[in-house]
Design brief:
- With about 525 residues, the protein is mostly beta strands.
- It has a single domain, classed as Porin (Beta Barrel).
- About 10% of the residues lie in helices and about 45% in strands.
- The longest helix has 14 residues.
- It is elongated, with a radius of gyration of 27 Å.
- It is a multi-pass membrane protein.
- InterPro entries: OMPP1/FadL/TodX (IPR005017).
């Protein structure tokens, strides 16, 4: 048995990959739960009770095994239209105007290996769980492997895809590779449980960067009026050197400025789940689970690749008479390397989650589940990254009131919300279960914070599945789900994406644009359960 568990954990680590946008809870975790709209706290599904309510483990008898697999795909798109009176410091010819993002695929992060470089139309998330119960004992022990949270986007097919400025590639995943758990049967109606999911977390962002804002636009217009076409200006040489970078050093708010890639992992990050289940009668059950959060500490590496625009501009300024003095006052670097790399760290919260539910079974053949959940996504007020040195590209940002070039703070401003979920199970015959689920998911991303890094507005999740008992010791479950949502962010309404103000350098790459987008996620799950 333990040998099987070790093999299963290795398989999960080798092939598990995410397939969802940001802030997805309770997806690709349980085939049965997915079919019931994740409304299973009062009727936890077998070994997957480890995640949804570990008290449900105390309902298992004997030894058992659960092998499960999900196949999932995500498709998201966005279009850009200039807002009314579009103008960024005198610039009106944004090449991204009236364009749309292109194909989106998934990528994967393999723990212990990294990013294989594969672009996938869909990904598989396998896992295996085990449970042990000695006959007559109130104690049940178990473990499982599953994907607790994931987000995956790849926009690298088209090098001109306008989505490249908020994520050419984005991978956030939390893979639980072991979850030692115990359920205790206090009485025939009351059960308790606790589990300790141990996860490997990965955070990878690869994005091109541009900085359309009023200050940069005004400065670019000044260059256009002052600098000759070839960049030579004898007066400028004895001045501040704003023309010294030549044609490539001419500043534009719409030019690509740089590329940033960060790759961070946390190989061992445990949390804890507590659950209680009260079943006073076959017609009624009430359950609750608290899934503890974590201040996950990541370590890894970064690479900043700076384009000629800023490199040549800084070089030209420092080649003039007064430019170095002005640069010193503003905190500018003396030069910017084409590539700067090193090590970095970050503490990114994994939010705590509370869920309560009720099960009603008025007649033998019909069961209705209703759940309410709350996750503390308000902890994602900002993402803070610490570098091992001063990043020369970020030293330019001191002009915009960012004093520490050894750190990068990316505002998020997410919120904590309450969501409801509904599940219906029909049992026309003893061996067959028909399940339907509906989950109207309020997004933790406010409308004034939405962007292409987290293109998840309010969504609706629809699910359907069946369960069939092959014999007294074996059953299978099959589920399909579809989640969809749309967003509309008029210009200057989301300051994580399209605000056009004087100092909005981090980070509004679509300043002044009306942005419309959508997301569509499809999943298919299969599970086989065996009792020994």
């Amino acid at each position: 048995m333990m040998r099987r568990l070790a093999i299963a954990a290795a398989v999960a680590c080798a092939f598990a990959a995410p397939a969802h946008a940001a802030l997805t809870e309770n997806l690709t975790t349980s085939v049965v739960a997915m079919a019931m709209g994740n409304a299973v706290t009062a009727d936890p599904p077998g070994i997957q009770s480890i995640h949804f309510n570990p008290a449900g483990l105390a309902r298992l008898t004997g030894d058992s095994e659960s092998i499960h697999n999900f196949v999932a795909s995500i498709r998201t798109s966005a279009s850009f239209t200039p807002g009314q009176g579009f103008d960024v410091g005198g610039w009106r010819d944004d090449p991204l105007s009236n364009t749309s993002t292109g194909p989106v695929r998934q990528i994967m992060y393999v723990p212990g290996y990294g990013m294989p470089g594969w672009r996938l139309p869909a990904v598989a998330v396998p896992g295996i769980g085990m449970a042990w119960n000695k006959a007559g004992s109130p104690w049940t022990f178990a473990t499982d492997s599953y994907m607790a949270q994931a987000m995956s986007l790849d926009r690298t097919t088209d090098p001109n895809d306008p989505g490249q400025y908020q994520g050419r590639q984005l991978q956030i995943q939390r893979l639980v590779y072991a979850a030692p758990s115990v359920g205790y049967k206090y009485s025939d109606t009351l059960r308790f449980g606790v589990s300790v999911p141990i996860a490997h977390a990965a955070f990878v962002v690869d994005t091109n960067m541009r900085f359309p804002n009023e200050l940069l636009g005004v400065f670019g217009q000044l260059q256009k009026g002052w600098c000759p076409e070839d960049g030579g200006n004898i007066i400028d040489v004895f001045g501040f050197g704003v023309c010294g970078g030549g044609k490539d050093g001419m500043v534009s708010p719409f030019k690509k400025a740089a590329n940033m890639r960060v790759e961070l992992t946390s190989p061992f990050d445990p949390t804890i789940n507590f659950g209680v289940l009260w079943e006073p009668s076959p017609k009624l059950a009430i359950g609750a689970v608290y899934q503890g959060g974590s201040k996950t500490h990541y370590t890894g590496n970064y690479v900043f690749t700076t384009d000629p625009m800023l490199r040549n501009f800084v070089r030209g300024m420092n080649a003039s008479l007064l430019g170095p003095i002005a640069g010193a006052v503003l905190g500018f670097p003396s030069s910017i390397p084409a590539e700067q790399k090193g090590n970095m760290s970050a503490t990114i919260p994994f939010p705590a989650h509370l869920q309560v539910g009720i099960k009603l079974k008025p007649v033998k053949y019909i069961q209705l589940n209703v759940d309410a959940s709350y996750a503390r996504w308000s902890e994602w007020d900002a993402l803070r990254f610490q570098f091992d040195q001063s990043v020369k590209l970020l030293e330019v940002a001191r002009l915009y009131g960012i004093p520490d070039s050894g750190k990068l703070v990316i505002p998020r401003g997410y919120k904590s919300v309450v969501n409801f979920a509904y599940g219906l199970q029909l049992n026309p015959i003893d061996r067959l279960s028909i399940r339907l689920g509906f989950e109207p998911r309020k997004s933790s991303v406010p409308t004034d914070k939405i962007d292409l890094l987290a293109p998840l507005p309010d969504t609706k999740l629809l699910s359907a599945g069946i369960g069939f008992k092959l014999n007294k010791n074996t059953d299978i479950n099959i589920t399909g789900s579809y989640m969809t949502g749309k967003f509309n962010a008029p210009a200057n309404t989301s300051c994580n994406m399209n605000c056009n103000t004087f100092l909005n350098i981090i980070y509004n790459p679509y300043a002044g644009q009306d942005v419309r987008g959508d997301i569509h996620v499809r999943y298919f799950g299969f599970e086989i359960n065996k009792r020994f």
